[in-house]
Description:
Largest sheet: 11 strands, mixed
Distance between the termini: 57 Å
Oligomer: single chain
Structural class: alpha+beta
Strand content: 15-25%
Helix content: 25-40%
Radius of gyration: 30 Å
Amino acid sequence: MRSLSETTAYRSHEVRLTPSEQAQQRRAVEIRSASYEEASNSVEVVWTTGATVRRYSWRDDVHYDEVLVVDASAIRLDRLNGGAPFLDTHDDYQLSSVIGSVVPGSAKIVGGKGLARVALSVAPEHAGIVANIKAGVIRNISVGYKIHRIEKVETAGNDVAVWRIVDWEPLEISAVAVPADAGSTIRGHGSNALASEQAQRRIAQASFDAIAAERARSNEIAELATRAGIPAIGTEHILLGTSVSEFKETVLKQPASQAQATRGFGVTNPREREARRAAAITNALLHRSSPATVSLTDDARDFRGMALLEIGRDMLEANGIDTRGMNKDELAGHALNVRSGGIGATSDFGSILSNIANVTLRAAYEAAPQTFRPLVREASAINFKPITRAALGEAPALNKIGENGEFKRGTLGEGKEIYRLATYGRIVAITRQVLINDDVDAFTRLPAAFGVQAAQLESDLVWGEILANPLMGDGKTLFHADHANIMIPGFLSLSTVAAGRAMFGKQTGLDGRTILGLSPSYLIVPTSRQFAGEQLLGMMYPAKVDDVVPDKIKRLELIVEPRLQNGIDRPEDGIVAPGSDAAWYMAGAPGQADVVEIAYLDGNRGVYTETRTGFGVDGVEIKARIDVAAKAMDHRNIIRNTGG
């Protein structure tokens, strides 16, 4: 038997890999959909069984059998556990081919098989592929990998040589049409007939929902394109899988033709003309508020530099309302309250201003920093009833059966956490005085502040669960001596972090005996300990050899959160937790065990807004609302040190 390593000097005269042999290799496997989890939108896959595959060596002009060695010492799992992509037919050239990703920390080797959980895409353009995976129509996957070292088994006569791949690295997993390694599958939860029937109903419902969502997307894009006078472009984007929000941006960016340079945009259809004018006004006002980030379209140049009242007058006159003799107060009132044709239309001035407010609010929410995201698992709730999350324990240990002995029955341990959604919100009015004062920023600054506040609320909820040390389902607090997740108090140092890593490794299952083999992924510190954390993880260059940090600790990701030091004080919302400038934490990735779960109503992540014109106030009312809750779920994946 001969050995080949990419790093050995004798590679050239032992086994020379051709460029095609050195390139990424692929093994096709089968997909099964029974392990699909709706809450996480994921499936579990067996991405390899090490089956033998016949290959051809261009250098030697012979065939050989390639055998993948499947054990922890032979496979480099860092890329998979770092969130490797789940691709459409190995297409790694474009982002649109990424139809999912490996859940970080889920890749492992068990019983000679490679297992992982794959989170599926939620993008509208992937709805068809994802629905087919759930329904079991797409059943095959292929793993792409890189070879680092080979052992070539010598053979006599005409026997085909065997190349054992003893060091290899999976790079990605793909959905494909043709399988090769038939032993690799997306795993099911069992063969129970009732469970199978329930799974099939869930799959059928998922397929129905995906089809309904696609129809709704196509219809809305077609309607938007018709209103904007660009039906051909609408058809193109329907086929491309463009989302409705992205297509709205496309409509806003459409340049005007020479024939549309007049105030009527050269459009004879009233609805198209109104939609075109609304898009132009929206773009002009957004550009005025943020010229560095919003480009002015050709249509919007007609409204560039116009005051809000001037734009309101233009819209009123375009709808046949004579504005002669109106003072500023009357003009503002009519612009905000009078609707074209006597019915609500998207081109009304109040609706345009409301749309601007919604756009800036959402953008501010998305841009607000949230340090908790790597620690949480997101979930969806269908109503405001209590949410019960069951945590199944490990299977019971296998006991020795003596001669003529009986098999004893075992049970699964179970724990649970209960919480429920709450609604948070506020209403603010922007009156006609804003139009008179020509304060465009009022429609952007205030909504942006709402967006930031929504993001801040989510952060307060999640970090509040950690700081407040809440009571868990077992009747004990999150950090408790019986939970073995409280470190001996000490300053942030190499020795204390090493002790924390050891505590993770000692965590057991619900039976109190099963070793889970957990490991930390994050070092969480207050702002007062940021420098110490950066220095510890090797972000600062060590001054001497004794200061060098081991690679395993360097791989910890640093999370710096000011709430750990400042605490949280929102008694009106029931979120109160003290801070500490000394305490620090370590946590594992949610892929190995839950830390905190954050849930939204019907999966609508983030802030939701509603606007109305001319009801309680003479102007525009904006209501920002978010339905959300957070709950600490498992004590085993986070530990605390109160500091020295």
